[in-house]
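A quick aside before the break. I want you to see a complete sequence-to-structure record at least once, exactly as it would be stored in a machine-readable document. Don't worry about memorizing anything.
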Amino acid sequence: MATRFSTLRQIPGSIWALGFVSLLMDVSSELIHSLLPVFMVTTLSISVFTVGLIEGAAEATALIVKVFSGALSDYFGKRKPLAILGYGLGAFTKPFFALATSVGWIVTARLADRVGKGIRGAPRDALVADIAPPELRGAAFGLRQSLDTVGAFLGPMLAV
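That is the input. The structure line, written in tokens, reads:
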């Protein structure tokens, strides 16, 4: 057990910071996304089929953008600006969900949020790999993903 704690202490602070940013982004995203389908169906009178189309388009957008952001990150060797842009875009979109009064607002906010996710994903992971010493890469990725998962768990819990 002492070895695990000493390993965690050796992980660079910037990776801890990325992990906590991921945690907070996931709390906010999952809090909103767990309530969003109910809001769309009950308040905006959208069919569940349309909710599925919106969610499918949003996730497809994130996956497609991730391919390009990863390639750009590798080509320019600049991971941090893309990660910051992606996190910033994701944070910027959150208030628009609260202001949404139509399907158009929801679709725009949802797609912009997922573009942010797509932009930050690959560069963030490459940044972790760049920062972490080779012997700590597994622990660094595990830490960042663990904090991300804690955020994904807490978000819906806070929504209840």
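Two observations worth writing down. The chain has a mean pLDDT of 94. The CA atoms of residues 69 and 75 lie 10 Å apart. We'll return to this after the break.
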